[in-house]
Amino acid sequence: MTLKTPKNTSEQITFHETIVVGAGVSGICAAIKLKQAKIDFIVLEKSREVGGVWRDNVYPDCACDVPSALYSYSFAPNPDWTRVFATQQEIKAYTHDTVKRFKVDQHIQFNHQLSKCNWHESDKCWQLETSGGIYRARFVIMACGPMHIPLIPHIKGIETFPGKSFHSATWDTEYDLSDKRIAVIGSGGSAIQFLPAIQRKTKQITLFQRTPPWVLPKVDTKISERWRKNFKRFPFTQKLFRKALFFQFEFLNHNLKNKWFSQKLEAAAVKHIHRGVKDEALREKLKPDYSLGCKRILLSNNWYKALGKDNVEVFPGITEIQGNTLIASDGSRCEVDVIIYGTGFEVSDPPIGKLIYGRNGRSLSDQWSGSPSAYLGTMAEDCPNLFLTLGPNLYTYTSAFVIIEAQVKYILSAITKARRKNIATITVNKDKSEKLNKSLQNALQGTVWNSGCASYFIDKTGRNSVNWPWTTMKMQRRLSKIKLAEFQIEKQL
Question: Could you tell me which Pfam families the record lists for this protein (predicted)?
Answer without folding.
Answer: Pyr_redox_3
